[in-house]
Structures are given as C-alpha cells and as structure tokens.
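Reviewers of the previous submission asked for a worked example of the structure-prediction workflow described in the proposal, so we include one complete record here. The input consisted solely of the amino acid sequence. No template or homolog information was supplied to the procedure at any stage.
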Amino acid sequence: MDFLSATLARVKPSPTIAVTNKAAELKAAGRDIIALGAGEPDFDTPQNIKDAAVKAIAEGKTKYTVVDGIPELKKAVCAKFKRDNGLEYTPAQVSVSTGGKQVLYNALMATLNEGDEVVIPAPFWVSYPDMVLLAGGTPVIAEASIQTGYKLTADQLEAAITPKTKWLIFNSPSNPTGAGYSWDELKELTDVLMRHPHVWVLTDDMYEHLAYDDFEFCTPAQVEPRLYDRTLTVNGVSKAYAMTGWRIGYAAGPEELTKAMRKVQSQSTSNPCSISQWAAVEALNGTQDFLAPNNETFVRRRDLVVKMLNEVDGINCPVPEGAFYVYPSIAGLIGKTSAAGTVIADDEAFATALLEETGVAVVFGAAFGLSPNFRVSYATADEALLEACTRIKTFCDGLR
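From that input alone, the workflow returned the following structure tokens.
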C-alpha cells in the first residue's frame, strides 16, 4: 500500500504479542490452551500499591502531569538508584515513560541518525532491533551461544564495535534466556567499552529484582563508574512489582539526553498515566517484603521446568540466573517429523506444531535472534507448567 510509510516496511510486529494473541484466539474458540508466551507475572499487584492508586483517584490526582514524570516519582527513582545500585542522580536526570519500552524508544529516537549502529547481543528481546530500525539506525547483532551461557564475551563485543557504533543495548537478567552477568563478567565488557569512548550504554534492568540462587545483580555504571556519563540506566515497575498493565518505566542518565527524551515524549504520548505514577511512587518507596517470597515461587517453577525439559531427548535447557524464562535448545529435534506429519525444519515449525498438536504456546527462538531454540515463560501456575511440560515431552517423544 503506497500510502503507508516506507519506514514501516523495515519492521515486523512483535512475535511475542502475536503468540499471545494466537493462544487467546484458540482458547476463545474452545481449545485447551496453555499459554507460556507472555512475559507477565501471574501475581497480583501488591495491595499497598493498589491502595496508593485508589488514594490518588480519591484525591483527584487525575489530571495531566509533567511530561516525563511527577516530581515525587522522580525523587523515588533517584532514591531507588542510590539504594539499590549506588548510583547518584538528580531528578533532572530522570525520565518516566509509559513502560520501559517507551523509555528505550525515546532514547533511540532522540539519538540515532542514519548510518548509526547499535550493538545488540543475541538472544535479544524482540523489540530491540525493530526500535533501532524505526529510529533510523542499524542493528548489529552479536551472537552469544549456549556454550557461554547465552552471555556476550569481551572478544565478541570488541569485534562488533565499529566507528559507527553509537549504543550497546545491554540486558541482564535477560529476556529471553534469564542469563545474568556477574560483576566480573560485566567488568570484562565495560573494559572493552572504556577503549571505545564513542559508544554509549543503554541498559535494560527490568528484571533486576528477579535474581536467584547466588546470582547478584549489577549494572554497567555501577561496575564501571567512568561509564556514568555515557550510560542510560533503564528500569521499571512492571516485572518485580507485578504492574505490567500500569505501564510505568523510568531511566536516569546524562541530563542532556533525558532532556532530549522529554522532547520526544512531549510530541508523542505526553505524560504517563497520573494514577499509575502515584502507584509507582508507592512501589519504589514502600515495602519490598513481597519480593523474596515471589522469587521463591519463581525458583520453584524454574527448577520444575528445567528438570522436566532436560528429561526430553533432543532438548538442552540451561539453568537461568534470573527473570522468569528458560531458553532451551532443540538442536537434537531438527529434521524430525511430528505425529501429525509436520517436519520440524526449524524452531518456528516446532512452536507451530507444538501449539496445533498439543495446545502449548511458546515463542520460537528465531524471534529472539538465536536458533534453534524456544522460550518458555514460567510466570504461571505450577499446575499449568507441569501439564505443559508433560505435553511437550509427549510431543517430542512422538517425533520420528
């Protein structure tokens, strides 16, 4: 259609949203569907946060706000970064948006010119490359493998950087793998970045508080303070606080950058929902006591899924350090044929056949830039995970 923008042709719809929608359609049509595609905790938003939102409504805090966040929320963000990460920011360095995705989008729109490159480690969250393309930049994919725990090495980062590189997008713990970088692993990457002063760092720390076992979260500007002036540290309340629908993300970085991001937001969505902002103030300032028991639940679910998937011939499922995803390899299943006659030519064929033949919805690995794999979100009930993994095993055992 000639009427549509040529820029639109550079990007594709989100595969994770597509899988979620397809699963919902099948369920509405009467199919027995177990959806493991959405990156959304099944926990309810904590009561103190909901109470803060109700209070904001009762007090009439339902009007337009400052474009990129109310002062109270910016102050809470500054306190969070100091408390959790040892990073000092002023409110002028903070930007609040309608979810973490808009924070990332604003930053890229405010900084990228045609020809600028953005290094993106793979596997990656599906939206990173397309947001770079929408902003006129060029994604440069640096592929990490299962052999390195899906983590980028210093040598791989060094090889990906060119004179045109403007950003590195860094995500730990990772969506889709759950892989988390230790302090020493991240220091190796920041050492590379110190040799390339033209490269800025765009972090995605959305899963910061979902860290398990002995893994301790850290973020680039914390590990290498000399990167402070060229790092945008992004976070939000969606995952740890079970506030996905409230749509609040935030970031802190150089004031010149946050001012540019404010300009982008002022001419697009303007301010995030006022009520959600007041709820986020309570999320950041209020009790954090629910995080530990929630994480215990996630660890139990992770261990269940990893154990059951690793019992399937042809599947190799590493144990993730955080988030609520596993990213098993199906290299041992490629080329086989399902009981219904579908050839498993790649991971997309695997995911399609699995949904059609068993009713289990997962996201295929090619969507995240590394195949042959698939992503399972274990942010759902134990009973559903047990049944889903049982169906996956039955499906795989039936491959010939």
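The chain has 13 helices and twelve strands. We consider this example representative of the routine output the project will generate in years two and three.
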